[in-house]
């Protein structure tokens, strides 16, 4: 079976720098075609900055209307409710738990390295802690919902593109978008 072409789900503007596909409700997972067990509230941010970055970089942007508008224009995003099946939901939970475990192991290893002060053991523990922190960062990057669902925003944020969608999701999404049917035999 040939993979289906990427599917673009159009967004609608809801404010300056803000777009939405909350109108799109699928009952099946985009990746597996299984029944969705949850609708994940997701902010797709093209700049790869999350809301925590907003607090760390420019906390004043949250307190004034102009600050929020300026932030939204500099960091546009798409609001989405995305269907996740039990497999995708479990995978995301496991990856997040693994990232937390690696981060805590790194923290404990770093603590042990600071307590010891003789020989090469503290240096080895410090290097081990550094490696655990790097592994936690990589694992966190892989836990992103876009990686799990194979979705990405288009360059101008006018659509959410689903790469290699499941045929059941593809058919349902095309019907919701009112696109003509595609002959899958070709």
Which labels suit this protein?
186 residues, 4-stranded mixed β-sheet, 46% helix, 3-stranded antiparallel β-sheet, alpha+beta
Quick take:
The protein is built from six helices and seven strands, in the order E-E-E-E-H-H-E-H-H-H-E-E-H.
Give a topology summary.
Blueprint: E1 7-10, E2 12-15, E3 18-20, E4 38-45, H1 51-57, H2 65-74, E5 77-84, H3 86-115, H4 121-142, H5 145-149, E6 151-153, E7 159-162, H6 167-177
Parallel strand pairs: 3-5
Antiparallel strand pairs: 1-7, 2-3, 4-5, 6-7
Structure description:
With 186 residues, this protein is of the alpha+beta class. It has one domain (7-175). Helix content is 46%, strand content 18%. Strands 2-3-5-4 form a four-stranded mixed beta sheet. It has a three-stranded antiparallel beta sheet with strand order 1-7-6. Strand 2 (12-15) and strand 3 form a beta hairpin. The longest helix is centred in the middle third of the chain and has 30 residues, at 86-115. The radius of gyration is 21 Å and the shape is extended.
**Individual helix count:** 6
- Give the ordered list of helices and strands: EEEEHHEHHHEEH
Strand content: 15-25%
Mean pLDDT: 81
How many domains would you count in the coordinates? 1
The quaternary structure here is: single chain
Strand order, main sheet: write it out: 2-3-5-4
Portion of residues within helices: 40-55%
Transmembrane segments: 94-116, 122-141
Keywords: Membrane, Transmembrane, Transmembrane helix
């Amino acid at each position: 079976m040939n993979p289906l072409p990427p599917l673009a789900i159009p967004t609608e503007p809801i404010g300056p720098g803000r777009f939405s596909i909350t109108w799109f409700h699928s009952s099946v997972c985009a990746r597996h075609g299984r029944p969705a067990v949850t609708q994940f509230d997701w902010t797709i941010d093209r700049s790869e900055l999350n809301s925590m970055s907003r607090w760390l970089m420019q906390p004043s942007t949250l307190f004034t209307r102009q600050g929020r508008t300026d932030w939204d224009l500099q960091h546009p995003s798409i609001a989405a409710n995305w269907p996740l099946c039990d497999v995708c939901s479990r995978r995301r939970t496991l990856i997040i738990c693994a990232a937390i475990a690696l981060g805590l192991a790194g923290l404990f290893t770093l603590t042990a390295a600071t307590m010891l002060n003789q020989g090469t053991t503290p240096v080895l523990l410090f290097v081990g802690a550094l490696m655990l922190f790097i592994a936690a960062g990589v694992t966190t990057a892989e836990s992103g919902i876009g990686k799990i669902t194979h979705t990405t925003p288009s360059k101008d944020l006018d659509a959410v593109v689903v790469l290699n969608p499941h045929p059941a999701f593809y058919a349902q999404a095309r019907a919701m978008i009112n696109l003509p049917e595609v002959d899958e035999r070709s």
